[in-house]
Structure formats: structure tokens, C-alpha cells
Amino acid sequence: MAESNATQVILTDDGLKIIKAQSTADNAAGGVTNLNDPNLMSVIEKQYNISQFAGLTSQYNVILKRAKDANISTTDLTTAYTNLNTFMTAVLTDTTKASDVDRDTYKRLTDAYNTALSNVQTALSNSYNADISNMQSSVSVASQAASSAVIVASQAAATGDNANQAASQAASAANQASSDYKTLSSGVKDGSVVHITTKTVIDSAVIGTAEIVDAAITDAKVGDLSANKLTAGTIDFNTIIGKNINASNITTGTMSTDRLDVDKLSALSANLGDITTGSLKGVDIVANTFSTPNGSFTVESNGAITAKNMTLIGGTLTSPTINTSTINSSTINGTTFNAGDIINDANNTSKFYPTTISSDGHIYTTWFNPVDAMQTDLSTGALTTKYRAINTTNPNNHYEAYDTTLQADQIALFAGYTNGKDMSFTQSVTGSNQEGYVLISPLDGLTLHGDNQQITFNGTSDDVTPKGIFITPYGNINPNGTQNIWYVGNNMNMKTASFGIDANNKFGVDLFRPTFVDEIGALGNRLPNGRLFLHATDENAQMYLLNDGSPAFVSPTIYNRTYSNGANMFVTSSGRVGRSTSASKYKLAIARSDDTLQADRLMTLKPASWNDKVATEKMAESLSSGKKPAEAEINLKRHYGLIAEDLRDAGLDEFLITGKDGQIEGIEYDRLWTVLIPKIKQLNNRINELERKTL
């Protein structure tokens, strides 16, 4: 309530602290404003974008090299990246403070880069599929040629075996013919043998049984020659020409291959068996199967190749696909490793595999379902998981998105959206300042940002009703259930403090141990009317802050302790309490005067009386509600004194008490009477002078 007291402005250490605290609060408020301003990029967003843009640059360099190796145009991609890089470099130059940012330009440049990147990735995918198809065709042709070669080799072996057998039988018959000729030349005995010793010509004769030894038959025409009895040492096949030679009884030890003259090995229709030779040379070899003698290398008719001990000269194996259950090796070098098949989902427009190890050291695992898609990226120093929604009902084409990154110095969780469906996982999460994010750092602790971000402490699964509390984004502590009493301590019997709602449905905080605030020891207790109550063990030693519509500081302890000294307490306009002093050690530029001008001005004032406004309003409220006033000071007593504005009109401003903005609040009554001293001295001197004249 308003009081009429003297005033003095005192700048204490607490005043300086409040000025500094206000400045800190203003700076903090400005930081929050910057964080929520869509036209500014905050320090937190800059730090996040630096990490994201570094990953984008690494991806761009890898895609650029692959495209150039495949002779794919990268003009649009390079232009889009250069424009985006120029824009981001300007924004991210200073990461210690927020910067102006053109969100429309930022979005346009990001969308242009993502479009160009998607086009190059699609071209790379098409080029890769064409290469795979060509390689498969080449492998098929090579396999067919190998099969044909093996067939020809098999036929050649069979022909060589039959020719060798025929030559052997012919040599045997020649030897027998030589023996019969020797018998005939020995002469005729018993009229059974005719011995012809001279050259003889037989024209159109029929010889039933003849033995011809060492005969030379020149230019003879033989219709059918039975060689059952024909023996000879050597038959020169260079001079024997016959339409049909039955060589079933021709034997020989060796048949020289330089005597075998055929256009094609296919002309030898017999089964040649096994062919043993130093080397087999041919342009094309076609065979059903091909195998080494010990089976270490085999080509099956279905194209399957088995190599038990394979050595690749040059150390390079080129193949579109290697299917195997186990690969054992100390080192496997490659550009890209894909696990499984391309994910069969219509939204997999980037043709992701379930797991991919890229040439730049990233390990990607990807997953799709009808509702959403996820991808985890493990790279040097970071693990990032991205969630992207497949469907949306947002009219602005926003798709729900989340990013979680685990780094050495921070765990970051971002919630927001992407502009359009992001099935390539290349867009950053937009709108995280509005949707919310969580940062966990060993340097900065736990940071939660967003209207819905809160810390929740739940009860156990055995609770019949929900238990626990949660801390809201605004620092409030709310119950998460039906519990009504919370306490700090070992158990309910050893509480240090408790708070909640008591049986009387009153709010309060109980402190069961001494609590020290700025070296003031006190115990807490509950009292009605919204009081913050502090007291010692003695119930008479207490003070509290009262809020019954007009905040007040109340202390029965101060009231009960009395002194005979003059008043020396003063309350400033900011609510501070201090001593009012008069000693010269507290004053500067002291000047004394016997001027009676101020006294003459004081004489122009008229005393006044009034009712206190606060007390009258409280009394009216009490009468309306029927409740007795809580304080005895609430009454309709008339007060007497001066009106402060009258002093201002009389030119006595130096005796006024002013508050905020220089408004008049009261009168320094304890100082005002001093202006009468010069006047009283003046009157006293006149009285003395009149008394002397009378005498």
C-alpha cells in the first residue's frame, strides 16, 4: 500500500548486479529471437550445416569422378554445386553468430543441386546396366567357343586311333604275302605247285589258289583283293590307290601323322578314342565338355567352370557377378561392394542395395516399406540415420523427416521435413528450428529446442495409473499421472523437502532441513493466501511475501522488535530496503544557507486530508465479498498532510520523492521542516529586537 515517506536514491552492489543481470537477460532474449527468426541462420544451424555440407561435397566429388570415367556430362551438376557452394561459403564464414539468409535462394539452389545429382546418378545407373549386359554376352560367346574346341579335339583323337589301327593291320598282311611268295619260288612238287621263274603275263586268267612270294605287281587292276594270306615287309601306300580297302586285318606299330592328309577331322567318322600329342593347336575348339587329366580345371556343357587352383596373371579378375557362399582372403580390394540384390520397391528410384560399401569409405544400409524409408550411413567419425516419410497430406509438399547423427563430440537429433519426397536421402531436414532438435554434447551438455521438447520421468510397468513428472520447454515441472506429493530424500520418513498438493488442496513446499539462502537460515511452511513464508524455530521470528492482489513484504518479527531511535529505513522504487543516513561521511558538496525563500514558499501551502486509495479499494472489495480484511491497516481512516503536487507548484521540487520515469510518488516530510529554521531565526531576531526596544 502507498505510504508517505522520505526517499533517497542509493546505488548498492546489488544494483550493479541487477544492471549486469538485466544486460545478460537482454542478450539471451536477443539470442532466442535470432534462433526463431526465419530470416537468420543461427549458430546451431550453421554448425549442423557445416557437417551436412562437408558430406555433400564428399558425395559430389565421388559422383563427379564416376561420371567422367563413364563419359557422362557433368556440366549441370558442376554448375549447381558451384552456385550452392558460393552461397553456403558466404553464410558459413562466421560460425560464432547468426547471419542473414535468403531462405528462398537457399531452397532454390539446394533443389537445383539435388535435381542435377539425381540426373547424373540415373545416367550412371543406366551405363552400368549396359556394361553388365555386354559383359554377359561376351562370357556366353567365349564359353561356346571353348565347348566347340573340346568337341573337335575329341573327334581328332578318335580319328587318329582308327588310322593307327588300320596301318597296323596293313603291315601284317604284307608280311604274310612275302612268306607265300618264297614258297612258290622253290619249285613245283607232286604236281601241286607251279614255280614260275621268268616274267609272266597272265591275261584274263582265273587263279583259284595261288601263293606269290616276293612278287612285284605293277599297274595291276584288282577288283576284289582278299588279303587274308597277303604278307609283306613293307607296303608303300604312296603307290597304292584303291576305292575300298578293308583294313580289318591291317596292323602296324606306328602311324605317322604326317602321312594323314584330310581336309577336316570330321571326315574321320570313327571313334578315335584317346589322342596323345605334344600340343593341340586350332583357331576354334568346340566341345561339349573340357577337362584337364587330373580334373583341376573343368568346363561343363552348361558353362560352369571349376578351377581348383586358379592363378590370374596380372592379379585382376573381371566379372559382373561372383556367386559364392564363402570368400576367404586377407585383403579384398574393390571400388564398390553391394550385398544382396537391388531392393525391389517402387520408391527405390536410386536403386539402393540392402548394404553398400562405397569407394569413399561409407557403409550404407537401406530399408523401404509402404509407409517410410530409412538409411544408415557409417563413415569416418560419424554414424547418421535418416528417416523419410513416403506419403504426406501437407499442402506445401512437406514430407516428414528425421536425422540422427552420432559423432565424437555430439549426438544430434533433428525433426522436420523435406521439400518433396526424398527417396535418395540427399536433402537436409528443413524446419528443425520449429519442429525441434536435441543436442547432447560433452562440452555443452543437453540442449532441447522446440515447443514439444520435454524431459519425462515415467514410473514403472507395475503402476496401476501413470506416474512420474515431465519438464516442459518453459521450465515447468508437471505431474505425469495422478500422484500429488513429490519429495526429495531417502524415503517418505527421511524427506529433505516435499511439494505437491496436500489434503486441504493447497499448494506449498515443505523444507524439512535448514535451508540457507544468502546466509539466511530458515525453514519453510505452508500458509494460506499464496504466501512465501520463511521463519525460524521461534514462530514469532518470521517474514513472508504476500500476494493478495497487491504484492507485499510482511514481517511480524520487524514489527515486534521496537527501538526509541528515529526512523532510518527507506524503500526505493525498485523495492530495495536501505538505511537513511544523515552523517557528513555519507554526503558530498555540503552547502549551508540562511535563505528564507523556501520557507516563504512553504507558507503558501495548505494542509489537506484524504482516504488511502489502496485501503479504500480493499475495504470495498471486503464489503462486497463479505470477508473480513486480512490486515488491520485496511480501513477508512482519514490521513492528514500535504499533497506532493502542491509542493511542485510552489517550487519545492527538491523535497519530492519520484519513482520510475520521474513520476511524483511522495514528500520528504523529515526534510521539509528544515526550511523553517532560517525563518524561525529571522522571527526570533525580530522578537529580541522588539523586546530590547520595549525595555
Polypeptide structure, described:
Helix content is 30%, strand content 20%. The strands form nine sheets. It has a nine-stranded antiparallel sheet. It starts with 12 loop residues before the first helix and ends with a helix. The relative contact order is 0.08. The model is unreliable at 1-11, 138-164, 184-188 and 518-528 (pLDDT under 50).
Q: Any chance you could write out the topology, listing elements then pairs?
A:
Blueprint: H1 13-36, E1 40-41, H2 43-69, H3 75-91, E2 99-100, H4 103-185, E3 290-291, E4 297-299, E5 305-307, E6 337-339, E7 355-357, E8 363-368, E9 372-379, E10 382-389, E11 398-407, E12 411-419, H5 432-435, E13 437-441, E14 445-449, E15 455-458, E16 468-471, E17 477-479, E18 485-489, E19 495-501, E20 507-511, E21 515-517, E22 520-524, E23 532-535, E24 542-547, E25 551-554, H6 556-560, E26 569-571, E27 577-579, H7 597-602, E28 608-611, H8 613-625, E29 638-641, H9 644-650, E30 656-658, E31 664-667, H10 669-672, H11 676-694
Antiparallel strand pairs: 1-2, 3-4, 4-5, 6-7, 7-8, 8-9, 9-10, 10-11, 11-12, 12-13, 13-14, 15-16, 16-17, 18-19, 19-20, 21-22, 22-23, 23-24, 24-25, 26-27, 28-29, 30-31
Helix pairs in contact: 2-3, 2-4, 3-4
